[in-house]
């Protein structure tokens, strides 16, 4: 009776992996003949951590399939109870184990098991990272790196389109820097800026007609424009809501710290360009 129950339990858990997984099954033969990169989850059906990881692994596989991301990388899985020789050859001694195979090399993933960090790991291994100047979490985006950047990963990219002469941009700049520093260690959100006096065509492409414009991107598409208050807590709440709605990591390594509102220097000179309208009752500078 005990044997029958144990067999039933194994078959039940195996069925969970069979019916819910978007990732393809892999065995030693299909692995040997694989051409494209493979990101492989080695698991056992009875492993509780494997079952917890399964929805995340499915989501990663779906993103790869839907968008042909990461050089058509295959997100796959190996049942080590059935493929014992394969797992033994790969020195699998703990579950789950995740390995990325690319161009004859293998890199093991040992990070946090979120879609965002898994995607960042893939891009780092495949050298998909574009060069971006960064200072304390704030990314300087240009025409050379903007499009590639907003397509990276499965997380969100929050961008400030600004002009150096814009009064409200100058006032908002310390807040934006503080937000960037706060989310610097969260792999599911990046904070960037675009100087529209330099990147005019890029700003025109995204319909920027006032400064600052705060736009949220994901998977290469603009998903929202922030129109709320520009104090730190309001912006932080907005970011948290956007992350939560998409099942991404809401907290940051600094979540326990309350961000302090940067001081505003009323004596700082502001240079106004002639080809703009300044409405001092508004909180935006319009382009004319």
From TrEMBL:
> What does the record list as GO biological process?
protein folding
Q: Which UniProt keywords apply?
A: Signal
Q: Name one Pfam family in it.
A: Thioredoxin
- Keyword flag Signal: yes
This entry's Gene Ontology molecular function terms read: protein disulfide isomerase activity
Tell me its family. Answer: Belongs to the protein disulfide isomerase family.
Protein name per Swiss-Prot or TrEMBL: Thioredoxin domain-containing 5-like
Its taxonomic placement starts with: Eukaryota, Metazoa, Cnidaria, Anthozoa, Octocorallia
